[in-house]
Every structure is written in structure tokens, then in C-alpha cells.
Amino acid sequence: MPHHFPSTVAGTVEHEVVVTRSRFITTVAPVTGVADAERVVAEVRRRYWDARHNCSAMVTGVLGDQARSSDDGEPSGTAGVPMLEVLRRRDLTDVVAVVTRYFGGVKLGAGGLVRAYSTSVSETLDRAALVHRVELTRVDVSAPHADAGRIDNVLRQWVQHHGATFDDPEYGSAVGFTLWVPEDAVDLLRAELAATSGGALAPVVGGTRVVDVPSA
């Protein structure tokens, strides 16, 4: 059964909301890990150096198993954790959210802060393009040079219709093709190769990798 992996965002998105005269400016960005997320937080702090708060939340790791948050001076539990919960509910990873607050002179109370910070992140994510992650299985096919052109065409057309990817062929005594195929499509590929080659091509299956697939 294919594994499920959290998605991430395709690029940096900024969005601002105003709540009772306080400005909440949210920056959401894709990251490669904790260090990269901390770099984004530092950049936002430099950009909005005069803001009262730059609260943050991040989720990292292929499985989304690492998480951190910061209230940055807001009452404990009113900013970072609500922001983090939004990222969790959206099933995201390798992402950081920073909410910059310019205080408007009116206190919002704990409940108001929780709503403001969570809404800020949620509305920003509504504007973000997502990148889904899937696990693909490696399939290697070796073909004689005389048949390589025809097999190449068949495989390239096949991957376009089955959510697979295709590495550059390797040329040696034979031509090696490497495909990365959804687990539930491996048998379909075997059948396609058998029909194309009269059973002469025997694919070798082994190994997996997780790849990013932009949302349509």
C-alpha cells in the first residue's frame, strides 16, 4: 500500500490582515530543514525589525515529524502553537510560517490572539500553491541498441499517463532505462513491456524515493 506523505508549499507567500488596528503580516515559505527555516525567520525579523512580535511555527522532515514554534513575547500559547496547529491541520511539512505583528494599541486578549494568529496563517495558506509528495518505485529496463529508440518512445509516453518519471537513458553494451513508478502501476508497466517486446524485456524492480508533484 502506498505511503502517505505531507505536502509542502511551492513558494513563498505573504498576506496581511488587520485585527482591531493591529497588523498581522504572514510569511509562509518552503524550507529544506530546521536551519533553512531559522534562516527565513531571521530574514523576516530583519525586514520587520520595528515590529513588536515576529512569531513563528515550522514543520520539517519528510514525514513532518519535527516541529517548533515561538510566541516571541506574546502570552504563552497564543501565537506559535495556534500557528503550528494550522500547519498540522493542513498536513504540511518542510514549511515555516512567520507572523509579524504591529501592535495597534488595543489588547486582543488570549482568545483574540489565538484567532488572529491562526487566521493569519490559514488565510495565507489559502493563497499558496501546494506541492504533493509521493513515493515512487524504481524500475530498470535494459534493451538492445537496435530496439532502444522504439522502447524509449513507448516508455516516455507511458510515464506521461501514469504519474511516473523517466531518467536519462544510459548507454553501454545495452541501453539502460530507469523509471520511477507509483507502486500500484508497476504491474501495468510490466504488462506494457511484455506486450511491446513479446516478453523479451524483464524489468528489475527495487528501491524507492519520494518526489514532489506540483498540484494541478
Q: Would you mind describing this structure in some detail?
A:
Residues 142-199 form the UPF0029 domain. This is YigZ family protein. InterPro entries: EFG_III/V, Impact, Impact_N, Impact_N_sf, Ribosomal_Su5_D2-typ_SF, UPF0029_Impact_C, UPF0029_Impact_CS. With 216 residues, this protein is α+β, with helices and mostly antiparallel strands. The chain contains five helices and eleven strands. The protein has helices at residues 34-47, 80-89, 109-126, 145-160, 186-197, and strands spanning 8-9, 13-19, 22-30, 53-60, 66-70, 95-102, 130-143, 165-166, 170-171, 175-182, 204-214. The strands form two sheets. Strands 1, 7, 8, 9, 10 and 11 form a six-stranded antiparallel β-sheet that branches. Strands 2-3-6-4-5 form a five-stranded antiparallel β-sheet, with helices on both faces. The radius of gyration is 24 Å and the shape is elongated. The mean pLDDT is 92.
Descriptors for this entry?
216 residues, alpha+beta, 6-stranded antiparallel sheet, 5-stranded antiparallel sheet, elongated
